[in-house]
Amino acid sequence: MIKKLFAYIMVLLAVTCNSLAQNKHFDVNKLALKLILIENDQPRRSSKFELVFTNHSNQVFPSTGWTIYYNGNISKIEAPEITASLVNGDFHKLIPTDKFKEIESGATQKIGLTTNREMDNFSEALSGFYLVWNDEPEKGYDIKDFEFSSIVDRTAKELTISSAAFKDNQVIKNIPEAKLTKIFPTPVSYTETNASFAITPNTIIFSPKDFANEANLFSNDLASVLNKSLKVETIDKGKGIVLNVDPNLGKEAYRLSVSNENITISASTQTGAFYGLQSLKILIDAKYWKGKHTEILIKGVEVTDGPRFGFRGFMMDVARNFQQKQEVLKLIDALALYKINTLHFHFSDDEGWRIEIPALPELTEVGAKRGHTLDDKKNIVPSYGSGADITNTSGSGFYTKADFIEILKYANARHIAVIPEIETPGHARAAIKSMDARYERLMREGKKAEAEEFLLRDLNDESVYRSVQHWNDNVMNVALPSTYKFLATVVDELAKMYAEAGAPLTSVHFGGDEVPRGVWTKSPAVKSLMEKNSDIKNTDDLWYYYFGNVNDLLKKRQLYLSGWEEIGMRKVRNEAGSHYIANPDFANENFHTDVWNNVPGTGNEDLAYRLANAGYKVVLTCVTNFYLDLAYNKSFDEIGQNWGGYVDINKPFDFIPFDYIKNMKEDDRGEPLNKEIIKGKTPLTEAGKKNIVGIQAPLWSEMIKSPKRFEYLLFPKLLAVAERAWAKDPDWATETNPEKAAAQYQQAWSEFVNVIGKRELPRLNQYAGGFVYRIPTAGAAIIDGKIAANVQLPGFTIRYTTDGTEPTLQSKTYTEPIPYKGTVILKVFNDEGRSGNSIKIVRP
């Protein structure tokens, strides 16, 4: 009896303990957070929020015993109920104070937050909130019920922005589609004829063997339109699409002729033939890409064409936030269509390493995963709202070796060179933490020498620093031999993948930007190196030591060095302080510098020209014109950053490569530029012109958490980049008479936006699966007591409501000014029925 009673008590205790264990913590899935912007004072650069906790559980949410983590760029948050502090990077935490009260079932608690920064747009909101219980520190629980909203009345400010757009749009003429140039980017020579040619499923492509790849790609592309791939033959038997070899044409040049009998494309190289076929695809009207057709009518043209610059680049950042392989392949299709020939692949940074390196598996085992961690040993900390869960697809992910080889093959077939970027020596936290994990694993196994083989930091370094992105542990130690062994290993592993893919590798990009002050100053390894090497007098000299070594590493492999502008600069100190000059040491070493800093007021407005004049190869990557991650305008509803100003499609279009200072119009806040700032800047010399190798547009991904956001910032901006990189200088760029130049510009701008609105964006509705490009917000202004509206892109439709509801396809079409009364909401629609952001106008 006693034994049975004892057994019953033990079972009861086990059930009770198990029940207590299960109910130990509040169910975080029942906790809702709402962040509400209640004040946004831009003149004072501050903002106020309300953070609302709502308990949907039947349990009490405790007042203590937890920490909430989140990501954001607001460095100072104050509230009596919580203490906010920086962990690292954009990673912060909230800890409750004794003022935080427990929250009963069904109740809420509102906390007022004051900050030291205003919000420029909605995408800057704090994000990625998750909770960690103090007694379970290794487990993070994402707060999935999270919402951001704003109650700040921006109606007047948004109307001011819209009114400025209305004024800009007024110069745009509506040009009939029949009068538009039908090849884009603008060709060197273009003439329309009265001829036409019908491509049918039975049309044959006659191609020499050298152009077989290009012919087959074109044939496969047309299969989506004709429901059948065109037959490719090597012997010209008559009517069809004929590819010819013409050795007199340039490397990327082509001739295209459409007659009643044939479509003929001539080129001296496979690349030229490819671009001729891309232009033929551009001649295909957008309507044909919808559904299947029995024929495609091509209107007669005579075209001679070739690019202005040999380097026409796009930089894709997959490190900050990841994009799946299919999105990369889709991007390559678009780059190829618009004759962009270089994909600068930014696959490593502080927040992620995205390519499998078989010799160093920790790079992706640790560095490709973001999620809750106490020590970065199994994965790195969350960034940009990626949260606690390492399965978050924007924070975590990488391309396997097979994936990357597939990407390389796909790009190479479409005549796109892929330049890999290994961010060094700064922006390297993902790599550093991965090699730390490798070190600790091998040390536990008693393999000290092997553990230290690829270590990227001096374990005894006591240097204190913060990078621009607020990391305090993201810089490789350039005094360590193991750093260079790491880099050589990665380069060699990448080279093997390129070789397996049959793709050329000519350059590796080694970053080189934003290394903070204070780094390496208290490193014993650096001290030891300085004692042995008399050329290194201070930490500044480590910079030249590092890039000298990296340059040697690449030259041994018949590669050249690419990097951000800093790789070609030298710090000079004098009584007035320090400043940077073009470093004479590397001027003739074929360094290719992506020069980004032309921000007005920094003193670097002419840096690209100074480096080119000094002998550096320069890729014009100017922030104010080509950083596609900058928001389109100042609207709160526009995603993107604004530290370098605002970039709409006019900014790349306005760019004059050999005299861009002439056309600088805005400062970094989007205000009219004080021209005194850019007086006396260094012009580009004739020798310097020869060193301008091309144009590149980066799309940094801090705010890009989905393919939809990626494509929104990509298009239509990339179309203006393609135009400026391929086409010759327009007449307005070189005209010396200001009035005549202004008239020429207005005509050229009208032609461009008509082509974009009526031909290219309709094409992108379906091409390569379709792109979710940005549809512009209507321009609107109050004129003579009525609301007048217009749109940046002819071919798009404005619809409106007067009852306060959002416009739909059933709403009225704007055709004439609307009475200014009540509430009017306007929205722009494309021909597929998709719409952009709305503009609300309320009569006071």
Features:
20 helices, Immunoglobulin-like, 4 domains, alpha/beta, 10-stranded mixed sheet, 36 strands, globular, Chitobiase, domain 2, 844 residues
Your description of this structure?
This is beta-N-acetylhexosaminidase. Belongs to the glycosyl hydrolase 20 family. Its EC number is 3.2.1.52. One of its GO terms (cellular component) is membrane. Keywords: Glycosidase, Hydrolase, Signal. 27% of the residues lie in helices and 24% in strands. Helix 3 runs parallel beside helix 4. The protein is built from 20 helices and 36 strands. The chain is α/β, with parallel strands linked by helices. The N and C termini lie far apart (86 Å). Strand 8 and strand 9 form a beta hairpin. It has four domains: 131 residues, Immunoglobulin-like (Sandwich), CATH 2.60.40; 134 residues, Immunoglobulins (Immunoglobulin-like); 118 residues, Chitobiase/beta-hexosaminidase domain 2-like (Chitobiase, domain 2, 2-Layer Sandwich), CATH 3.30.379; 312 residues, Glycosidases (TIM Barrel, Alpha-Beta Barrel), CATH 3.20.20.80. The strands form seven sheets. Strands 9-8-3-6-5-4-7-2-1-10 form a ten-stranded mixed β-sheet, with no helix packed on it. An eight-stranded parallel beta barrel has the order 18-19-22-23-24-27-28-29, surrounded by six helices. The longest helix has 27 residues. About 2% of the residues have low confidence.
